[in-house]
Design a protein that fits this description.
single chain, 706 residues, alpha/beta, name from scop, Rossmann fold, 5 domains, six-stranded mixed β-sheet, 26 helices, 50% helix, elongated, disordered C terminus, binds adenosine-5'-triphosphate, binds magnesium ion, hydrolase, ATP binding, ATP-binding
Length: 706
């Protein structure tokens, strides 16, 4: 009957649940989910585990239901005949209960039957039952007063549970989706229903960070600033004694890969204050009101942990200037920003919470965010200079297994001289590529050659040995590069040449690598010489083959850019005068020029003239040195790569003095190494004053090594 059906269904459900618990939880927790299982096998009840609690409750519930159905007194089924002869005739029936118009429960007088308290039988319908009962009474000749009473009742036998199963399943499924789905996941891995959307996703950094300050190099000034913030929090007295207020925060800005995030990580790894980190984009969600709520929650968390440091990476996601059109998520972003402004400097002033932020684009940030009182300091981390690069190389050479003949310091200096303009991330990449190249050829250690190849690869892209050039094409490329090299060699302000190659790499067919000076100001003459050098390739093609190719496109683009910049931005044209306009950046749309048509015409004319002059001068030079270009071109065709020594051999010494080694570059700058000393007041930045002296001395040791 019904009960057995239910029984089966519950067994099935229980089995399914166990199954889900077994596989589902195992996957979710990635092995850790079995933790409670192994603990339980050891005889320990892991009540602190959520999964275990869920399991226990489910198992207990299902078991009790099963027990109920199994052990409740269900009586014995009998037939009508048996009822009449065995019970009715013998007068042991106390009363008859017609349940749900389906069956009749025969309640016996106490002691009437040893087996059970009652028996039951099915009936077709109540009418027939009544008629049959009447007939039986007549037959047995029972007096109406002796007849058993008939009661009608409705009882639930558990079938309502069955009808509720689909609803329950649906409800459970929805709950599951809410918890595990995108809504619930809003809170970064934490279990949370739709009601925890406003919870901040900020994470508290614990001791699991391996980055230390000694891993960050080449940005000493920024490092000192950050150390100072830690010191503010540790020793506020040092500053307050002199009447100074503690700054609220700092923005770290600079090009990609210069070490902003790394610096923050190092702070988290080494500072003895709580470090909370969050990503700017985590405030933006498709639901209205979530961003501000998260900001509020994050600051509440910070205040609870004060004194502490809060780091918001890529803050431009929320900190964009307000008022830039009110469409889409714009107003939500503005609300988030407003909340941030209020939290940083509102009535609920966050005492002893220092906010650091990182961004590539400080120019798009809202001015209100950048004003003193919020982000008091703007720390620019630019591409490192030559000393900085040497230090960064030392950091990234540390884990690499070098050839025993190589001196780490000397190598770092040499590489620093050969990689102008590289950022920290580029340098890390060079070191890694060198090791990869060495490993590819099964070398036991990494040598200088591998580093050279790595630099080439990072600058030019992958070498394409399989690309076959037609002989004529190859010749054109060789003379083109030779033209660049010769012009560079004989012009005073051109950059010293490092290498010429006609092996195709990346997109280019050949390249000449120069060593740009570490220079921040360029004179008009210097820019002019550079333009000539860039035109050298095209001119050489013209002189030798009397035809020009598409190979010079990149050069021409650079020439044009330089020429326009000189006229429009740097005010270097006499006719246009001392004015400077913004040139449109790549990908930007220009709707309106900031100058008149007449000026535009004048600018174009000046640019044309400038390029023309450069071309004429280059043409003259190439014609004068035709045999030399020929020589270099031929040698290139032979060997494919020429370096400086080859050039010296072919052309004789360069008529101008030039700097090429690390020592040349750093000469006159005071020291050979980056200055990493700390100011007096920051000596024990990570300690509270008055801490035990031995702790102090240990940090001082650390300082001297960083
Ligand atoms: N100053 C540095 N010293 C040592 N390594 C550096 C330095 N700068 C960058 N690196 C290397 O480059 C990697 C990327 O740096 P990081 O993530 O800090 O860049 P970022 O400035 O945050 O860039 P983005 O603006 O793109 O976020 C680091 O993991 C590290 O290996
Ligand atoms: Mg970063």
């Amino acid at each position: 009957m019904m009960q057995y059906q239910i029984h089966n269904i519950f067994l099935f459900v229980l089995w399914k649940l166990l199954d889900v618990a077994d596989t589902g939880l195992g996957i979710k927790e990635g092995g850790g989910g079995k933790d409670w299982w192994s603990r339980m096998q050891k005889g320990d009840f892991p009540w602190d585990q959520k999964d275990f609690r869920y399991m226990a409750v489910t198992v207990a519930g299902v078991t009790s239901i099963l027990l109920y159905f199994n052990f409740r007194d269900t009586g014995r089924e009998i037939t009508w005949k048996e009822f009449v002869h065995r019970y009715l005739a013998r007068g042991v029936v106390d009363r008859l209960e017609v349940v749900n118009k389906q069956y009749v429960r025969v309640i016996l007088v106490p002691g009437g039957d040893a087996d059970s308290r009652y028996v039951w039988f099915n009936i077709g319908s109540v009418d027939t039952f009544e008629r049959n009962l009447e007939a039986a009474h007549m037959e047995l000749g029972l007096e109406p007063s002796n007849r058993a009473a008939v009661i009608y009742s409705t009882e639930s036998d558990g079938s309502f549970l069955l009808s509720a199963v689909p609803t329950l399943l649906l409800f459970g499924f929805m709950l599951f989706v809410l918890r595990r789905g995108p809504l619930g996941r809003g809170s970064g891995g934490r279990m949370g229903g739709p009601f925890s959307m406003g919870e901040s996703t900020a994470k508290m950094m614990k001791d699991n960070i391996s980055v230390k300050f000694k891993d960050v190099a080449g940005c000493e000034e920024a490092k000192v600033e950050i150390l100072e913030f830690v010191n503010f929090l540790k020793n506020p007295q040092q500053y307050q004694d002199l009447g100074a207020k503690i700054p609220k925060g700092a923005v770290l800005s600079g090009p990609p890969g210069t070490g902003k995030t790394l610096l923050a990580k190092a702070t988290a790894g080494e500072a003895n204050v709580p470090f909370i980190t969050v990503n700017g984009s985590e405030f933006l969600e498709m639901f209205v009101g979530v961003g501000p709520a998260r900001v509020r929650d994050m600051f509440a968390m910070a205040r609870k942990n004060a004194p502490c440091i809060l780091f918001i990476d890529e803050i431009d996601a929320v900190g964009r200037k307000r008022g830039g059109g009110n469409f889409g998520g714009q107003s939500e972003q503005e609300n988030t920003l407003n909340q941030l402004l209020v939290e940083m400097d509102g009535f609920n002033t966050a005492t002893n919470v220092v906010v650091l932020a990182g961004t590539n684009r400080p120019d798009v940030l809202d001015p209100a965010l950048m004003r003193p009182g919020r982000f008091d300091r703007q720390i620019y981390i630019g591409p490192p200079d030559i000393k900085g690069r040497a230090s960064i190389f030392k950091v990234h050479l540390r884990p690499i297994k070098l050839d025993p003949g190589l001196d780490k310091d000397a190598l770092a200096r040499k590489m620093a001289a050969a990689t102008p303009g590289f950022t920290g991330a580029d340098i890390a990449n060079v070191c890694n590529e060198a090791a990869l190249i060495a490993a590819r050829h099964l070398n036991p250690s990494v040598n200088a050659k591998h580093f050279e190849q790595a630099i080439d690869r990072v600058i030019g892209g992958l070498e394409r040995k399989t690309q076959v050039l037609q002989p004529t094409e190859k010749k054109t490329v060789a003379y083109h590069e030779a033209g660049h090299a010769i012009v560079g060699w004989f012009l005073q302000h051109a950059d010293p040449l490092l290498k010429v190659s006609i092996i195709p790499r990346g997109k280019g067919l050949g390249y000449a690598q120069y060593l740009p000076r570490e220079q921040y100001l360029y004179s008009k003459e210097q820019l002019f010489d550079r333009m000539c050098m860039m035109l050298g390739g095209r001119v050489a093609e013209q002189v030798f083959f009397s035809r020009i190719t598409t190979g010079a496109q990149d050069d021409l683009k650079k020439v044009t850019q330089s020429a326009y910049a000189q006229v429009v931005q740097f005010g270097m044209s006499e006719k246009v005068g001392q004015v400077s306009f913004d040139l449109p950046r790549q990908g930007e749309m220009v709707l309106e020029k900031p100058y008149s048509e007449a000026t535009a015409e004048l600018i174009d004319k000046e640019v044309r003239e400038l390029v023309e002059r450069a071309y004429d001068r280059t043409l003259q030079l190439i014609k004068d040195k035709k045999e030399l270009v020929e020589k270099v071109g031929q040698r290139l065709l032979e060997r494919e790569i020429l370096d400086k020594a080859d050039m010296l051999e072919l052309l004789g010494p360069r008529p101008f003095q030039e700097k090429s080694t690390y020592e040349d570059f750093v000469e006159g700058t005071g020291s050979f190494e980056e200055d990493t000393s700390l100011p007096e007041g920051l000596r024990d930045w990570n300690q509270e004053r008055g801490a035990e002296s031995e702790e102090k001395s240990s940090t001082q040791d650390k300082q001297t090594t960083t």
